[in-house]
Design a protein that fits this description.
Order of helices and strands: EHEEEEEEEHE
Structural class: mainly beta
Radius of gyration: 15 Å
CATH class: Mainly Beta
Helix content: 10-25%
Shape: globular
Strand order of the largest sheet: 1-2-3-4-5-6-7-8
Number of domains: 1
CATH superfamily: Calycin beta-barrel core domain
CATH architecture: Beta Barrel
């Protein structure tokens, strides 16, 4: 794994997302910006902790993705997830593409991760243009509102 990719570690805000997953489509209008904390194991695997604010609590998910040998590409065998960092400048934004296979469906998702909750209009436009390249549409996109005062962090579980 290239040392430069370790710069991807740290806290990211999920500023926008799109997916053709049926669960996502049912909840996307109620979603708020979440926080994703990325770290790497000594073996180079990617550990992701995602915290979503819900109406009355914070929902936390943890995922360990194994490196594939290709920079920015990770897989979670148990969850049948394939995650790729499509584009990043490490300090402001990242476009992440995820494909998940379940018994019921195969789904595609993309997320716009930002270091700050504010996202530039240019990065947002670039992210919207990316949707068609992974087979998604603008109807499946949600720009997530900021979480405001009620923020979910590891401390607020």
């Amino acid at each position: 794994m290239g040392g430069v990719f370790l710069q991807f570690a740290g806290t990211w805000h999920v500023a926008a997302a799109a997916s053709n997953c049926s669960v996502f489509r049912n909840v996307k209008d109620r979603m708020k910006s979440s926080t994703s904390t990325i770290s790497f194991t000594p073996e180079g695997d990617l550990a992701m902790k995602l915290v979503w604010p819900l109406a009355d609590r914070c929902q936390e998910f943890e995922l360990l993705l194994q490196r594939t040998g290709q920079a920015g590409h990770y897989m979670a065998v148990q969850e049948k997830k394939d995650l790729r960092v499509m584009e990043t400048d490490y300090s402001h934004y990242a476009f992440v593409h995820e494909v998940q296979q379940t018994e019921r469906e195969s789904s595609t998702a993309v997320q716009l991760l930002t270091r700050e909750q504010d996202v530039s209009p240019k990065i947002l436009r670039d992210f919207e243009e990316l949707l068609t390249t992974v087979g998604l549409t603008k109807d499946e996109l949600v720009i997530l509102p900021k979480t405001g005062e009620y923020q979910c962090t590891a401390a607020s579980r």
